[in-house]
Structures are given as structure tokens and as C-alpha cells.
Specification:
This protein has 367 residues and is of the alpha/beta class. It folds into two domains: 6-183 and 271-312, Bacterial extracellular solute-binding protein, family 7 (D-Maltodextrin-Binding Protein, domain 2, 3-Layer(aba) Sandwich); 186-268 and 316-366, D-Maltodextrin-Binding Protein, domain 2 (3-Layer(aba) Sandwich), CATH 3.40.190.170. 44% of the residues lie in helices and 14% in strands. It has a six-stranded mixed sheet, with helices on both faces. A five-stranded mixed sheet has the order 2-1-3-10-4, with helices on both faces. Strand 1, helix 3 (70-85) and strand 2 (90-95) form a beta-alpha-beta unit. Helix 1 packs antiparallel against helix 3, helix 6 (159-170) runs antiparallel to helix 14 (356-366) and helix 7 runs antiparallel to helix 13. The N and C termini lie far apart (44 Å). The model is unreliable at 1-46 (pLDDT under 50).
């Protein structure tokens, strides 16, 4: 059985952040103060509850992220914090990097309560909680900073969070938190994507998400769903010409070896959700629920403070490895959002999720 201790995790985070950041910097990031680094989330004081009278409980958690990616750091840090807070009474045996299967596999296992907890990005969750399609609205977060987005996604008084949480409950899940800091999925290609017209006929690998595919189709590209473990070789052979992912995933998968350009399309927020089987959550003693919620809140505060730096370091690392970075003026995003197919996609998504898209846009504008 793999128990993740705080000491082991500290070493893991150093190695993972160094692998993501590049440049040979192996120093440990400065510790963040959860009460200040993530002001949208209210962090409870360390609990002085006596857990020793409760029966020991072990949960199973998993992700399918790339090695060293933010999702792995999130899951492992929560595991360590739960162990520490409860004195080892509540533990999480954590399996990262697809050890228990791809996103759809581990989500199905969690639905059946064969595993209790999953960390993954938003797109695969849509098949299980349709309202998560709200995160498929292209570029909806692009003009907001991390604190504003976090207030909407995780804030205790957020109407959007309440509505989204209810949707998870209806699907048999408990949404514990959403980790982000205004970093995004980007596009790598062997074509210089300077203008919107350059995306025409671009054969790009996407996740198997109809809204993502509709977006790329709307701007003239040719989306091609493909399992992640096939992507490197498909790019290498020329079967596809591009893919989209966060910068840390691009570094961890050495996509610089098979791609020339990194375009800051910022089309989808790079967010990692921590989700739990609802029955498993409610079966926990309330003290264990409190400890788990505290662990998630503290972990989000600590890691989110590092995400912008990790993102910038990974972009710099890809450039150091020979990729050309493509940045866009605000007018580029306005042009994309004005494309008729993108306008129609916004309406289609919002209609399909009962107006949650409009709730999100209003919440962001008023945060």
C-alpha cells in the first residue's frame, strides 16, 4: 500500500516543480500562507479535534495527468495534508499519472465507488456532469485574473459555485475544489499560427469533447480526438500537425521534439477539479469531512500561488528547447469570439446547461 507522507511529498514537489520549470532550479518554492495567497477561499484554522476515537478510514484517489503536472501535485498534497491533520486516522492511497486508467476510466471507477477521489481537468467530466460544459465556453476566462476567477469558482458566497455543486450532487459526486490561477491550455503546431486564418485546415488533436471539437471546427481547424499516449508519435509521423494542452504537459511530454510553435491561444482555462464519490463523502464522519475540506482549501492556496510561475517557467523552457512562442493582442481573441460558429457555440452550450453559462459570465463580470 502506498502511503504518502508529508516528508515524501515535499521531495516529490521539489522534483516535480523543477521538472516543470526547467532551468536547473531545484530550490523549494517558498511556503505560502493559505489565508493570504488565495483570498477567495476562507481557510479554517488547524483543527484541534480528537480523531483518535474515530475508526481509521483509507480512501483511494487517482489522476491521469502527466508526471509533475499540477493535478498530480494537487492530489498528492491533499493526501499528505489529510494524513497530517488527522494524525493518520484518515488517509488517501494516491495513484497518479494514469496508474488506474485514463480520465474516463477513473471517473467511471469513482462513479461506482471503486475509488473515492479523482483529480482531473474539466473536459472529461462533462460526460458525467453535463453542466461542466460551462468550462468549454472558449476564452470565457481569458480577461480575468486568478483571484477573480477563484472567487467565482470556490468562493463561499458564489452563486455559480452553489449551482455547479448542485449539478455534481445530482450526478452522484461531491465537488471539493477547483485549482487554477488564470493559466490556460495552449496550442502547439508545426505551423506559424499568427492569424485566425492560419488555423484553417489545421489538423489538431483534441480531447474527445464535442464542444472543444465544435470550437476548433468553427475557426476552420480539423479537430481529431486521440488518446494522449498516441499523440507524440502521431505528431512525429505527421498524422496530425498540432495539439492543445497546458505548458507543463507540453514540457513533461517533450513536445518540443516534434513541434515548432507554441501559440498562446488561451482557449480553455487550465483547471484541475478534485471530485469525490458523493456516498463516500457522506459516509465520512463530519470531523473527517472537515479535515478533508481543510486539506483541499490549504492545498489549493499553496499550489495556486505557484501556478503562474510554473506556467511562465514552462513556456520559457519550451522556448529554450527551440520552440517559437506566439502571443496575441486582445483583438485576436475578440476576432475569435465574433466568429459566427463560436457565437452559436456559446448559445448552444448555455442552452444545454440551463443558463449556467450566463450565470458564470455575470459572476465573473461582477466579482
Amino acid at each position: 500500500m502506498k502511503k504518502i507522507t508529508a516528508m515524501l511529498l515535499a521531495g516529490t514537489m521539489i522534483l516535480s516543480l523543477a521538472a516543470c520549470g526547467g532551468g536547473g532550479n531545484t530550490s523549494k518554492p517558498a511556503a505560502s500562507n493559505p489565508a493570504t495567497s488565495n483570498p477567495a477561499v476562507s481557510t479554517p484554522a488547524a483543527s484541534d479535534a480528537d480523531y483518535s476515537s474515530l475508526p481509521k478510514v483509507e480512501l483511494i484517489g487517482a489522476d491521469s495527468t502527466g508526471k509533475g503536472a499540477a493535478g498530480q501535485l494537487f492530489g498528492e498534497l491533499v493526501s499528505a495534508k489529510v494524513d497530517e491533520i488527522t494524525g493518520g486516522q484518515l488517509t488517501i492511497e494516491y495513484f497518479p499519472n494514469g496508474e488506474l486508467g485514463a480520465d474516463a476510466d477513473i471517473l467511471r471507477q469513482m462513479k461506482a465507488n471503486e475509488i473515492q477521489m479523482v483529480v482531473c481537468q474539466t473536459a472529461p467530466v462533462v460526460s458525467f456532469v453535463p453542466e461542466v460544459a460551462v468550462f468549454d465556453l472558449p476564452m470565457v476566462f481569458a480577461k480575468y485574473d486568478g483571484a477573480t476567477i477563484d472567487k467565482v469558482l470556490n468562493g463561499s458566497d458564489s452563486a455559480f459555485k452553489t449551482d455547479l455543486g448542485a449539478a455534481f450532487n445530482n450526478g452522484g459526486f461531491e465537488l471539493l475544489g477547483i485549482l487554477q490561477n488564470a493559466t490556460y491550455r495552449l496550442t502547439t503546431a508545426n505551423k506559424d499560427l499568427k492569424t485566425l486564418a492560419d488555423f484553417k485546415d489545421l489538423q489538431i488533436r483534441t480531447m474527445e469533447n464535442p464542444n472543444h471539437m465544435a470550437f476548433w471546427t468553427a475557426i476552420g481547424a480539423q479537430p481529431t480526438p486521440m488518446a494522449w499516449n498516441e499523440v507524440y508519435f502521431a505528431l512525429q509521423s505527421g498524422n496530425i500537425a498540432a495539439q492543445e494542452n497546458a505548458a507543463d504537459t507540453c514540457v513533461g511530454s517533450n513536445l518540443n521534439e516534434v513541434q515548432k510553435y507554441l501559440a498562446f491561444t488561451n482557449h480553455i482555462l487550465y483547471a484541475n477539479m478534485m471530485i469525490m464519490n458523493q456516498d463516500a463523502y457522506h459516509d465520512l464522519d463530519p470531523l473527517y469531512q472537515q479535515a478533508l475540506n481543510q486539506a483541499v482549501t490549504e492545498a489549493m492556496a499553496e499550489i495556486s500561488a505557484q501556478l503562474a510561475t510554473i506556467d511562465a517557467d514552462n513556456k520559457a523552457e519550451l522556448e529554450n528547447r527551440g520552440m517559437t512562442l506566439i502571443e496575441y493582442a486582445p483583438e485576436f481573441y475578440d476576432e475569435v469570439l465574433a466568429v459566427p460558429g463560436v457565437v452559436d457555440l456559446y448559445k448552444s452550450i448555455d442552452d444545454s446547461i440551463g443558463g449556467l453559462g450566463a450565470t458564470l459570465q455575470d459572476a465573473l463580470a461582477n466579482a
